[in-house]
Hints:
Layout: H1 2-9, E1 26-30, E2 35-36, E3 39-40, H2 43-52, E4 61-65, H3 72-76
Parallel strand pairs: 1-4
Antiparallel strand pairs: 2-3
Amino acid sequence: MQIKHVIDSGNYRASSDYSDAAGFDFAIITVPTPLEESMPDLGFIEAAGADLAPHISPGATVVLESTTYPGTTEENC
Length: 77
C-alpha cells in the first residue's frame, strides 16, 4: 500500500534520464556488472555514478543495486 501511495503521489519515477534525479532525495542505480576474467567490470557503475553526480543535491542518498562485491563504493569513490 505504501508503494502505491508514493507512485500515485508522483514522488517516484523510474527513468534512464539522469536529469530526472534533480531535486530528489534518493536515487537508485541499477546497472549490470559483467565479469571480466573472474573480476567484476565496474565500468557501468563508474559511468552511472559520473553521469548522475551533476544532477543530485548535496545530502542525497544514492543506492547501488548491483551484483558487484561488498565494499565496491567505498573502494572506488
